[in-house]
Protein 1
Amino acid sequence: MLRLSKTINKHRANIRGLSILKTKTSNDTNFEVGQVVEGFIVKEVRPVTDFQLTALRLEHQKSGADYLHIDRNDTNNVFSVAFRTTPNQSNGLPHILEHTTLCGSKKFPCRDPFFKMLNRSMANFMNAMTAPDYTFYPFCTENQSDYYNLMSVYLDAVFNPMLRESDFRQEGWRLEHKDVDDKSSPIEIKGVVYNEMKGVYSDNQQIYNEHFLNYILPSNTYGINSGGDPNVIPSLTHSDLVAFHHRYYHPSNSRFYSYGNFNLENHLRFLNDTFLKDCSADLSIKDETKVPNEKRWATSKRAHVACREDPMVPKDKQSSLSIGTLWSDITNTQETFELAILSRLLLNGPNAKFYKSLIEPNIGTDFSAATGFTDQTRDTFFAVGLQGLNKSDFERVESIYEDTIKSVIKEGFDNRDIDNILHSVELSMRHQTSNFGLQLLYGTLPIWNHDGNILDSMCVSEKIDEFKKKISNKPNYLQSLVDKYLLNNNHKLVMTMSPENNFEELRKENEEKLLKEKLAPLSNADKENIYQQGLELRRQQDAIQDVTCLPSLSINDLKKTTDSVPLIRENINNTPVFIFPQPTNQVTYFRSLINTSHLSDDLKTLIPLFCNVVTRMGTKSMDFRQFDQLVRKSTGGLQVSQSIIDSPRNLFNMKESVILNSHCLDKNVDEMFDLWKQIFTQVTFEDENRFKTLIQEEASSLANSISGSGHMYAMLCATAGINPIDAQRETYGGLQYISTMKKIAQIDDLKPIMKKLEKISEIILNKNTMKCSLTIVDNNSTAVKGLESFLNTISGNWDLSNEYNKIDKQDDNVKCFHHVLPFSVNYCAKALPGVHYAHKDFAPLKVLCKYMSSKYLLPTVREKNGAYGSGASLSMSGSIQMFSYRDPKPIETFEAFDDACNWVNNKKITIEELNEAKLAIFQGIDHPVAPMSKGNALFFNDMDQQIRQEHRNQIMNVKIDDLLNVANLYFSNTNFAKALIGPANNSINSGTNWNVTNHEDL
């Protein structure tokens, strides 16, 4: 399960102004304040016109439980239950409890009903998450029967969990022999959360963020690690866990949330009758868990954090520095909204004050990890700094910080930048997504958790009007906020981080010391008990579970046909145009696909870099700052990305493309296409300093991404060994590309690369290989005329005989790759050749992968071996992939991968299990699609309704024998590839088939 990020990334939008699905509310708006409904009293009813919803606050009369319902005509309904959980130690108690509650309950006593419900539901989202001061359990589904099935499982899990000691040992931590069956093998510390947090502590950015939070808010619960410090987790006892649950998972400490168009009264009746009607209130719990405001400091403080060396970053550029100040109380929603705007003015984009002063001089590689406005804690805080620093530049950065603040107070902000931010809020309020209910929960829960007025927080227009009034009455209002919260704020933290040569050795020493301390007092009887407990846990993990207690949808609950998407095909200026009429809420969406297969290989390797910088370099008529200001004024941004698209009908056929993507309010269509015209006709690659800045940012971002997405990089590395298309993807987006960017970032003279990017623009920024798409309301002729004007302006003539090009199959040699990186856990992957999307075996292979994920890999690799995650999938490129995430036992994991075919043959698959796997597949197929994305499958992937319907029918018709046949045909293939990302491993590194890359040598 996920832990919430404690800081807001500089690219992340403010959730309280996020995208919506603007529709009419449903029928739950006739409740009145003071009315009692199914044991709940209505406390407040408020229409929120910004989002076309009605919010209702209720309170359960007997227990005091809090309830927020969002009445909105959205079919993707959401439910969540949350508890304020404020730990006082770094033993990971709330985090481990979150895991353990989902391991079985009184009504559903089978092991891990949460994971089993993943295959018995049509939920498009299921999870449980631990934040620094609360834990919550959300899900989303469009099916009403499914909704109540999941409610019953979730609520029984949190209110009536089994909390067995064996589950605590599996999910939290335990002492166990390395080989469970061998009493003579060494005893180790194991556990899912224990290994998860070891993985977290392998990431320098996570270490930095965690410590910054601990140091700037040290007095209360934020001063410890709610997820758990691996050195402290083994101090937690099962009795501590049970006592914490008994006290804090109480209805009086609960916050219930529902969203969508299902009937509220039914929700309340179900909740009251099943769980709450016999509960009594204990109001002391809320007082006990309440987080007070941090006492403001009289003087600023400093802190230093050690980290591991990062072989993907130059050795003299591995330090970070951040300066943070404590800001508003999160419950002051107006001030928090205004401070979020101030943060964006200071940080976002090339016109932002700190971007100019800190990023553009190229002192470091990018903003530091803790940079941003954090509004997830009781007291919000703001931080800014740099990573990729030399320690000798620390003082310089601090000096620049002070000078920047003073200049802001003196000069103020450009009104155009303020207007652009407000425009982005308006656009985001109209921009439609399929998960608005979930995003609204994320945005309101931190305020709600601290008893703030959550209904006020949703009224964005009122906050904008109030903000405009303030800056109108007091032109220097924003400067006064800078003076108050930045210049004259004694609650200031300056934190630095630098690598230590022996960091990993010290970590291992501490781990070994901890283990010795645990083993030292053990008697022979204690050790025998550890051995027996290990055997017993294994027996429980291997036991066949009776899942008949769990509710489930059936295949008959699924729709039989694929949804059709209205389409108008046009040919404008000899260019293919797809027009998708949709209810876009006065927003126009433009996409374009430009084929790049005709580029030379040396230019193709630079396409990802080209995409990253082409809209951020400026044009011949305006510099990058001026251009960025126009982009923010009129659009939601101009995005350019590279994509390699597989043919759904032919293996090893791919479409190499660059994708253009933008959206704007309907009234700004002409301005949006004018911006694209400038990119196509005037883009320039002449500002070397700007180019260097963008390269440093990209290289730094890529290097930081490995530990959090190691399984994705491992899968790509493995599939590259067996599939020529994935080999291309690895070159353009895998570890190979990260190494390439690392080298480019260290080049002094970048002019030759800039010349190549200019050459790419000359070749592809035209109509020669372009096709376009518009998603608009039915009668929006302005958007079509705007696109026509754009196409009339740019050069070229459509000349593309075939979008796809065939690539030669690779040899059948076994390939195994180990990328040695200084992590304390591993990421494993194995790849096997599969088939293309339209092949008759694609559907049974897809079902088999889903079946193996839940019935084999999850219990074997996660539950027994302690990895945080594991699974199998089938990619559109025709590659079968098995993977593990934050894995302490790579040898055992690869053995499990290799034994997959034998396991299937020895497993008696039931009809019920087959249908569960199919349901899990249809979760992905039938997930809600926002209007802006409808038609993407056709436009990008050439998947029309017929081929999607055929695929649907094939999945429906998969039989048990089909799974056995494809298992023996494909999973027994001796042509495979493996990849491992993680620390040096003597057992693997000594293997003759393994190619070892030590990234310290790159």
Note: The mean pLDDT is 93.
Protein 2
Amino acid sequence: MATLEEMKTPSSHQYGLSGKDSSSAYLMSIVRTLSSSADFEQREKEKTRIEKAFRESDKRLGELVTDNYQDVTKILQAFNGMTKSINESRDKIRKIKEDLNSCKTLLHFKRDELRKLWKDGVEQKAILSMLEQVEQIKEVQDKMKTYIDNKHYLHATDTIVQAVAMLEGPLSGVDALREVKFDLINFKEKMHETLIQELSKQIYERSLPTSSLQRGSQMRLSRKDASVWGWSDGLDSPRKVPKIEGSETPSSKAYYEIKEDLSSDPQENLNNFIAILAESLFALRKLPDAVERLKLGMKGSLNKLINTASQQIAESSGQQLDSMVNHVQPKYLNELLKLVFQQTRCVAQTHQIFLDNVFRLTSSGMPLHSHMLYDMKDVWSEIQARLQILLSQYLDVSNTISSRQQAPTGFDEPSMDISQYFSKRKPIKGKKVSLFRFDASQHAISVSSARQQIQQYEHVRLAANFMAESGLWPVIGTHPCFFVCKPEAFNITAIYKPLKSFILEVEEIMQTTSGLQEFISEFVQNAFLGQVHAKVSENIEAATRVEEEEDGHKCFDALRNVIDEKTRRELGVPRPLLQSTVTVDSSIQELQDLMHDLPDYADQFLNMICNVLRDYREKCHSAYRDIVQHGSDEKRIISATWAKDDDISRFLRSLPSWRSLQPRKELDRTICSEEEIEALNSKESGILISNLSGDEAIIPQQEIITDVTQMRTVANVHESLEWFADRLDQFAASLTPQNNLNPVQEELPTELPPISEKTLLSLKQLVKDFKDLAEICLLLLHLEVRIHCFYYLLPVTRQSNYAGPIDDLDPDSNVLKLNKDLSSTEEMMTQSLQPKKFKYIFESLGYLVAAILINNIQYLNKINENGIKKMCRNILAIQQNLTNITLTRESDLDRAKQFYELLYLSPDEMLNSIAEKGPQFTMNDYKELMQLYHRSFAGNSVNVQDARMQRLHSVMEKGQNETV
């Protein structure tokens, strides 16, 4: 209920007052106001205001009393009840005090008797306590058995420690417990052995994830193990491995009380169980012994772990462990290492848990000597040492290093022009080759096979004995355990990536360089790379060997061997490839696979690839020279000389027929019209005719390729090197140079690391060399077919008789030889070249033949009507043959036939025809026709001949003007 004082309080705040003295202060302020005011009217106003405020406060007080009447009544009643209870309690206390004083007086008179009774009670209580302790001691052995069977080691340790303490303390004088005391003390002394064995079992067996190794060796973690260790189901590595000791400060260690629940299985929580074992050993004062025993037994326990993992892999593969050593199956080694990595991570993590508990216990009590302690660096060092021994056997390090080959350290080739490969070289004497050998005889094969089996058995036996002696695998009787796959250096390709990942993980934990990384780096650098180089070099040498032929001329033997049809279908190529090229490509593919398997050594493998390509390039160029050169003076065939000529080669590459061979650049008839193509063909024919149709002797046979097998070889070289260069070009395009990285590429690493820019440029140069040689081979075939036309057609006009009798109408023998040569070439190229390249070889060949026959009319001495028919039959025979080859009518040869049929006309009739129809040939062609006519048909004077020539000039000029 609000009081008057409370009602007045708000107005008092106007004067800055509050609290207990607010009302009196307010009154004093009114008095001061009234006394200080001299004006009566002002005092009256102040009085009136105060009275008004008083009436309002009184009215407000009355309203509050009316509204809260019931509450005030209840408060008064409660206050009265409390006052009554307090008075009654005071009376009771006063009475109790009087009673206590009375008891004190009575006890004072009975104190001696009470003291005696108290002493008797204490004595009886001590006797009862001792009897209870004796009963407990008698039950200790049964309790210990129960606790140990249930693995409640903390309760067992506390029980035995307390029991021994009682027997050596309060119960030391009880003779009846002497035998029990002896047994319990012996049990206590031996109990730490059980704890250490259990601790080792938990670290090396129970801590391992339960792997489900099915056939095919797919390893999966159980959901229970994945949840306990924080692993996602199916992963090989934990989310985070604990840091090594020393990486955390002592203050960051969690100190907590270890509790053991008797109603649950203590092994369900590995962390708590390890802590219980450490606590138990600490209670037994045997923690230093346990630490030292674990430190010394680490090697043997890890060896046992690896041996068990090998047996698991053998069981999951469905094979016998002793037979797996004979098979090259590195996938089982990969699975073994993954399983061992997985298990050693768990072992290391459990060691970390144990060491954390050791630190917790020793920091608060028992100190350990430095020589007894170990930390996580020691654990990971021992794990790496065991893995190094394991890998040294599976990688066959001893034999690999003993037969070590030196790998090329780098590839450095100065830029050079491809033309230098076609320069003259001194002939190299051929090696002497034995006439026959017995290597392939049945006896030699059986002896060699038996020798290999004995060597393999000895190698496996020595390796297994070394493993057993080093303690890596135990010896069962006299037979040591064997390998899960055949030991060889190339096993590194299957295990390098997971091994590298594991090494990086270990280095992150240890914050130092891994010894295992040094071992792997030394093995790869000093042994594996050399062995790879030796193997690849041996394969390349076998595929590209040079042998001696009967005539003493060396040839590239591999150029004569092409792949079979099955291999061609597997490769998806339209035409046969050289076996040597496919073998080299296979070796390059192996090196490319090694670049992906061992990405840290991609540069070294790329150097090997460049070395292999360089050697193969030199052998290809050497083989090419052997084909295109002849005689001791090293003269080359005409087509080869022209193919490497810069001007001729540049012109031939500018023709539409060549451009149509390039990818996605087919000949566009809208760009190159028929007239333009005819002009280009005329230019090509003119170049060839100007170089080959001189007044000199006919082309010698040694300056052309007469053996169709050699032409097939050139075609095979072209197809093979073009296919090979395309594959190399794709490979080079997939590589990234080191100096060409942008920030985005650095954030998004590719499968292969950046490659040395210098080596990559060398690779691209080698690819260009192979492309150039492939193009040169195609140009050579293109030119060779045309030179064959010159070789056979030049004698047609220079050596044959076209003024003979009427019965001499058969085609010239050289024409028949040309047709036979073209047919055999067509048969060969159909099998060896793709259709578009076959078309490039024979396209516009009819135009060239017509141009040769027309141009060489100047070398005919005489011709009669029979000779004209014979020449027309020559042209018809060639036309029919070319039509069968190209499957298109060679209309250009119709033009040559029309040209020779003009000889049926007299010079005057020929001039009239030119005047009427216009010129169809050049001025020089008509001039040669008229001169041949005059040589063949005598009786025309010189003046008549000159007149006809002048008329020819005028007619030709008029025709050209009309054309313009």
Note: The first strand starts at residue 475 and ends at 476.
Protein 3
Amino acid sequence: MMDASNTLLKRLCSHVTGINDDRLASHFHMAVSLLNEGHSNVMLKDHNVVADRIKRRLVREKRIDDAARFSSLMNRLLKSAVLRNKTGILTFFLSLSQENSGSISTSTHTTFENGLCNGHGNEEVFPLPKLHNQHSDRKVHHEGALPSTPPPSSLTSEAKEPKSPHTPGSSRVSRLAAIYKASGAANVACETRQSESQPHSPSTEQLPLRPVTPKKGLKKDALIDVTEKMLIRDVLFIFQGIEGKIIKMDSSKDGYRLDPKVRLSPGQKEIILKLSDVGWLYSQVKDFCEWGGSISGNDRMADRTAAGLVNQSLVLALREELSDYCRLIALLEAQIQEGGDTPLGEPSGGLTLRRLVMWTLEPRAQLRALAFLTHAARKVYGGACVSSIYQHLHHGNPGHRAIVCKVLTRASTPMYVMLTQWLLDGALEDPHHEFFIAADPTVSDDRLWQDKYSIRWSMLPSFINKSQAQRVLASGKSLNFLRNVCHFRAPIAGREAIKTALQQTTVESLFTQDENSQLENLIGLTFRETSCHVLEEIMTQHKLMDHLRALRRYLLLGQGDFIHYLMEILSPELDKPATNLYPHNLSSLLETAVAASNAQYEEPDILKRLDVRLLEISPGDLGWDVFSLDYHVDGPIGTVFTAECIRQYLMLFNALWKDKRMEMILSDIWKEQAATSKLCRELPELGVVLHGVQLLTQEMVHLVHQMEYYMTFEVLECGWHDLMTELKTAQSLDEVIAAHNNFLKRIVAGALLDAESKEVRTHLRTFYNLIQNLRALQERLAHTVSAEVNARKNAVLEIKARTEAGDFGTSTDHQEIERKRRKEFTSKVVPKLKSDLRINTQTYQDMVQSFLLMLAQHDDENLHLLSTRLDFNEYYHRRDHRLNQRLTYHHKRKSMGTSFCQ
């Protein structure tokens, strides 16, 4: 490989010098020495700059194909592990092309040297990095940028090579060597300055702006030369958001532009525009601070307190960061006076543009982080503002995270203060509605637990999860419940422990949570202490369990002797129209029932709350339709037994009361049938009717008893057992309320009073109407039997009396009248009773058949068992094949599939 490289180099030297004999050896050795220059003479990272100059030269000469081919060859060169001095090789070829084109001059060499040191070539535009998701595209630009004309300079002595007197082509080779040496020296100087980590441009004496004398053939509008110190002063003005003489503010494009009349090199333009980015970022943060964090956008005259305490704390944190930045600006202004006044481009010991870039690297990163935060905090406030800032905490740059953490700590301080006050005392001081706990002052204390306090989800910080927010709400709500509803004035037992936990908690713990975080421990401790105290207060002092049992006994008809006696003594009153009822009469009867049953041993507070209520009266209603027992609740127990819960208890009472009434009616029917059956021994033609009525009565009794068994044991008792189990394990008042609500929901659904059981409930009402019709039929039958038996007895007594009087016991007319009466009874009255009985029986059996089918298709398994018990002898199964268990299951699956497809 070395021999191939030497051969290629010899061919190159021969092509350049035009020599093919032994004289080529000296030129070959010179080229080898040039290409073997060490890394100290050439900057390895400048090969891209040289390659860009070569490509731009090819493009200017319209050699597009050669430029593309050069790019391909450049990629191969970069991948080569053999050639190390890539920058020197590219510089050699560039100088060679300039020599061939006859364009090598001292000015050209100096320009090339400056380009290598700057590392930017001829580029004149350096756009500012843009903030991601800013409200508008913000950039720094310049206008009127003209190519710079650097001051002339000569090559160093190291770059000058003597001409070789021995070869014809020595002049060309020596000039190429001089060019390469000059470029190498420039790279060495540039590398040395960058190794000091403070790249700088020499400062010169500060002079007033002066016009350049126009040369012949040029326009009169000449460019103006400025000193570097003047540029630095303008840059420092920009750092403070103030427009300078050279760098102007362009409000139309929200950026900065350079005065086109000022003479600046491309490198200087790029550095100035890069430094202007710092000033633009400072202006963004400063403007946000001047708005006071207001959500009103650009309205700087808005009230700064309208944005809330969180945004004001954010502004305070931003101003503290800006104060450190302003101190840095003051130090930089002091350094302007250190350096001597030297021409532009000469080395200087004071502050230079390149050193200014190094000074502002860290402040620029900090300002960029602050600008991101101000963008996130616009048009949001309170907890939403804290959440927006918190999103920037998950950043890969440790410096960025440190700034965000510092600002977030200050912004979260008002939230932390409100949180601690809420957890410790239940106090909520939130004039700007920033906290995630909201209070409604219009809600009375009896609805404090349900409606007064709630979570404002839009203000919930993203570092507090839903479970923690609910426990925070319950903790402060418990304290207010004890103070305002239970009238508990003494401090709770665990308050000192909560205060100690608060003292160990910091603001940073809000957004730096882990498994054993301070905030989680604090919330857990507060929740346990306050909830335990509330449960103890409501269970012991206010006897919640006693009130639950009272509702079970009286409104859910659990006290059997009391309900039975109450129904008997109320029957005469409730048989009247509802408009003729008076509450005071019913209340006196209620007290009588209490005194005559075991209810008299209840506590006075329980009996005092028991009362009667008349529901809304509709036309045609009887007292049975509007009567209801009532139970008054107030104070702390009203939190559990809300108005909605009492409404459900009344609904359950009415359903159970109707079942009891139907049982009472069937009992009365059975008593009447026992008396009627004795009279019917003398009326054999009514034996069929009486037997049919007895059969129908027994079927209805069976249905009512099964419904009562289902309601009492499978609904009420099972639900009550689950309620007691949940109450024993409840740790907060919310769990008690949830368990009680689940109990009511379960028994309401089991009593077929929910929306899903509407059709079944309608059938039950039809059954109740059929029982009423049966009672009417039984009364008519008893009246008919009694009248017929009395008529026949009267006829016999009349015959006996006339016989004892010595007259004929009967006559033809009397016999004819008796015969017609009995014939009318047999032909009209008995068939009418049979027909009514047949209609009632058929209607009842049809309703039972459809009712059983509804129960079998219901989702509740307890209703399936009820259907089985109602048809224990499978009488209705034989009448309707759909009631067969297998077909019913198939029908249910088919119905579910149809509803799913719909």
Note: The radius of gyration is 52 Å.
